[in-house]
Structures are given as structure tokens and as C-alpha cells.
Amino acid sequence: MKRVLPLSLCFLFIASFSCVAQNAASPIETLKNAYAASGSIVVLDKNTILIQPKMPAPVCAMPKIEDGKTTWQFYSFPLASITVRLTEVDETLISEDRVFTGDEAPKSYKPGDKGDTTMIVIAGNEGKQFHTLIYDRDKFVQLGPGPHSSKEYDQAPDDTLAFGLTFSDPVSARAFEIALKNAVLEAKAQAQIERP
After folding, report:
1. Quick check: is 71 in a domain?
2. Are 163 and 77 in contact (CB under 8 A)?
């Protein structure tokens, strides 16, 4: 019995160390899993990810009620890719909105209706921009099936202060939002440690 106790303690120490190591990578893995239905995420280095949304980007409609009348704002983020340095994300500005993606929403909307899609908006720290590849959504939509050159839909580099990602599943959107905040905080903490 005396020999079993030290072995058990040793096993618990190793198991707890293993859990800590797994948790260090979990925000990025959670990001990848939560975003899988909407696109893909590639890790470029320990502080940089490449987000590749599925194309074409949906047109998102958001109702706004002013003076008792409903008006609509329309958004589209035609992004082929976004390079995100985690240390350059402002985690306090990550926000979530419910939006509508169907063409009929402005006609059939009744106050209180919830959108069918969740949009997560990500903004950079002051003075920071994200490097993106944008494209002409209308040209992309008109292309038939099959492989196409990026020139056919006017893909080009661009920089932006903020961008939106869409999720049809609100649970995945929430998991992504939490994981992104955690990944950003971890990257910033690590950057502080590594500063000379």
C-alpha cells in the first residue's frame, strides 16, 4: 500500500501536467473546430492564424428600429482570407450580432424576430489592420461550377480595421468568440513575457 501511494501521486502529477499542456493549445483547436462549418483556419505561427471563409460570403441584413420604423442595414464581407496576428486583436471589441441572410427577411420581419445567422465582428488594436484578400462577390456568384482563376472574381490584397465572420450555429459562434478572446489574451501574455 505504501508503494502504491507514491506511484499514484506521480501518476496524478503527470496527468495534471498533460492537462495543462493540452489546455495551452485548446483555444486554437476550439477556434478551428467552431469555424469548420463556415470555413477553415490555418496556424501560420504561434501568434498568427489564417482564416479562410467559405465563398461566396453571405449578404447579412440587420434590422434597426428608429422612431418606430424598421430600417435595414446590409453587410457582406467578401474575404477569401484574413491574416490575424492574435496580439493585434482588440479582445474588448469582439462582438456578436444575430443577422438575417434570407432575401425575404425585410419583407417578412416582425419586431422581435431573431436572425438565422450569428455574425462575430473582430477589430484590431488602435492603429492595427488585418491583411486580407478580398473579391468581387457579384462576379464570384455568377461563375459556374468548376475551378476558376482568382482573376475571374477580382481577388486582390486589401487591409481592414475590422471584419465579420458568419456562423449558422449560434453555439459554434459562441465557442469561437470565447476561444478567440482566450487565444488573444494568451498571445498577449506570452508577448509580454518574451519582451526583453
Report:
1. yes
2. yes
Domain around 69:
27-194
Q: Is residue 4 part of a domain?
A: no
In a domain, 94, yes or no: yes
Number of structural domains, the chain?
1
**SS3 category, 190:** helix
Q: Is 81 inside a domain boundary? A: yes
User: Using CA atoms, how far apart are residues 74 and 196, in angstroms rounded to an integer?
Assistant: 46
pTM over 0.70: yes
Residues 155, 97, 121, 103, Cα dihedral to 10°: 10
Contact status, residue 98 vs residue 117, Cβ threshold 8 Å: yes
pLDDT tens digits along 19-38: 434 444 479 999 999 999 99
103 grid coordinates = 432575401
CB count within 10 Å of CB 116 equals: 15
